[in-house]
């Protein structure tokens, strides 16, 4: 079995707590809070006003540019206010507040379980429907999907890479989607192949999901140009550049995108959303997310409408376990500890993890012993110990020279550090400052 070549770690996967649990639909909230920024790129602009009545699937905020994504009403009801709210980490973000009244959907959306297979749309029409539906990468990055499907002049994809890896410990929502909706995902793959003009697609799945591998191999055997490749367990194999290396042996250059090596990567949850958008006329208004933890009362995978306060999702899943010391939005490697449960679920919310008190407290950091383990573990070939030090002293120019923007925030360096140094706590703000400096320089050059 294959894997990527540079770095990586082997955390315990802890999938068993929520694996093989059928997807359960979470009840609608009484009040929905719909963030206007659920993607990477330009913020959206509201197209509804306070007092308006909206239906599920109605456009409520329009993309603010090419790299942006529409937002649709995940519930039906009355818009009560449009103002800032606080996300799980304490940051402010604009949102549309809706008082829920029933569950009335926009006409033309197919909500039946029937699988639709025939599509006569041309590639541009497929991409337009994906853009209109507000589809973004549901693997974590939330990059607007239609942008990936429109490469810059002179660039052309020759292979579609399908990410079924789900390497983040504890999370199993993608796994369960492949088991329950594998046929729809396969149709979505064919839609993407047509949109991209490629004749080859490869689905990568780590070997700890043998049932998903078997199911997708069975479906792929009936789909022209699609193959499934089981992969060794190694984190962060779900990263775009790592998965491309593992599946086709191409390494994306520093600072470049996958299209530079002829690849486009999409997550299985994203592809399922593409199927629903193109074949069912359904905008992205919900997603499957994992509720899990060693003491979670009803660990499993839940279909949640965006805008639902996470407290209500947690209550439906049995509440917060008594021994919880930390609640993480996402998985333990790339997720972040929450300071509020009032924030709503949105396109980026892949899971909620309850960490027991005994495992949630940080060990007191010690001095760096220059062991080099963080360098060996870094899947991007960086020097995390050095980047953290340069970040602490705001050495912006040096950080850029040392390729800090290549950091994918995977946490391998922190996981492997014997001195328990919080390397990412320094690297993340350093990366943000370098990014701001680059954008300012580019803006100045355009003048």
Q: How is the secondary structure organized here?
A:
Layout: E1 24-25, E2 31-35, E3 45-46, E4 53-54, E5 59-62, E6 71-72, E7 77-86, E8 92-100, H1 123-132, H2 145-148, E9 159-163, H3 173-196, E10 201-206, H4 210-220, E11 226-231, H5 240-248, E12 263-267, H6 268-280, E13 286-293, E14 300-305, H7 310-316, E15 324-329, E16 336-337, E17 351-356, H8 357-360, H9 373-377, H10 384-392, H11 396-401, H12 412-416, H13 423-446
Parallel strand pairs: 1-14, 9-10, 9-12, 10-11, 13-17
Antiparallel strand pairs: 2-8, 3-5, 4-7, 5-6, 7-8, 13-14, 15-16, 15-17
Helix pairs in contact: 1-3, 3-4, 3-6, 10-13
Question: Could you walk me through the main structural features you see in this protein, from its secondary elements to its overall organization?
Answer:
There is one protein chain. The model has no long low-confidence stretch (mean pLDDT 95). With 447 residues, the chain is α/β, with parallel strands linked by helices. The longest helix has 24 residues, at 173-196. It starts with 23 loop residues before the first strand and ends with a helix. It has 13 helices and 17 strands. It folds into four domains: 29-100, OB fold (Dihydrolipoamide Acetyltransferase, E2P) (Beta Barrel), CATH 2.40.50.100; 123-280, 3-Layer(aba) Sandwich (Rossmann fold), CATH 3.40.50.11540; 286-360, Roll (Ubiquitin-like (UB roll)); 373-446, no CATH class.
């Amino acid at each position: 079995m294959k894997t990527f070549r540079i770095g990586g770690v082997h955390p315990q996967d802890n999938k068993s707590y929520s694996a093989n649990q059928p997807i359960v639909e979470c009840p609608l909230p009484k009040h929905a809070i719909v963030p206007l920024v659920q993607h990477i790129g330009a913020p959206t602009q509201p197209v509804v006003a306070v007092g308006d009545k909206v239906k599920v699937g109605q456009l409520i905020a329009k993309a603010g540019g090419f790299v942006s994504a529409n937002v649709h009403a995940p519930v039906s009801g009355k818009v009560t206010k449009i103002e800032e709210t606080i996300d799980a980490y304490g940051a402010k973000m604009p949102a549309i507040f809706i008082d829920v009244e029933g569950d009335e959907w926009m006409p033309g959306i197919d909500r039946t379980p029937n699988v639709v297979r025939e599509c006569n749309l041309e590639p541009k029409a497929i991409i337009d429907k994906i853009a209109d539906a507000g589809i973004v990468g549901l693997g974590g990055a939330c990059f607007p999907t239609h942008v990936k499907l429109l490469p810059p002049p002179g660039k052309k994809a020759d292979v579609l890479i399908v990410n079924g890896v789900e390497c983040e410990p504890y999370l199993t929502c993608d796994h369960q989607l492949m088991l329950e909706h594998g046929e729809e995902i396969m149709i979505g793959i064919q839609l993407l192949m047509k949109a991209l003009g490629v004749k080859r697609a490869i689905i990568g799945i780590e070997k700890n999901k043998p049932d998903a591998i078997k199911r997708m191999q069975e479906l792929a055997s009936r789909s022209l140009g699609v193959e499934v490749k089981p992969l060794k367990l190694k984190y962060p194999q779900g990263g775009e550049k790592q998965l491309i290396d593992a599946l086709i042996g191409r390494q994306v250059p520093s600072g470049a995108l996958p299209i530079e090596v002829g690849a486009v990567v999409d997550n299985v949850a994203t592809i399922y959303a593409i199927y629903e958008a193109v074949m069912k006329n359904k905008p992205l208004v919900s997603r499957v997310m994992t509720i899990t933890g060693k003491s979670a009362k009803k660990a499993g995978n839940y279909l949640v409408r965006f805008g639902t306060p996470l407290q209500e999702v947690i209550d439906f899943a049995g509440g917060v376990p008594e021994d919880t010391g930390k609640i993480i939005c996402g998985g333990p490697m790339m997720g972040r500890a929450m300071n509020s449960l009032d924030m709503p679920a949105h396109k980026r919310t892949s899971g909620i993890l309850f960490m027991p008190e005994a495992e949630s407290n940080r060990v007191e950091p010690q001095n760096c012993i220059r062991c080099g383990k963080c360098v060996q573990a870094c899947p991007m070939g960086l020097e995390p110990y050095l980047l953290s030090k340069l970040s602490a002293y705001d050495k912006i120019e040096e950080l850029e020279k040392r390729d800090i923007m290549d950091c994918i925030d995977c946490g391998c360096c922190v996981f492997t550090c014997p001195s328990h140094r919080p390397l990412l706590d320094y690297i993340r703000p350093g990366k943000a400052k370098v990014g701001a400096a680059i954008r300012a320089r580019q803006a100045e050059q355009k003048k």
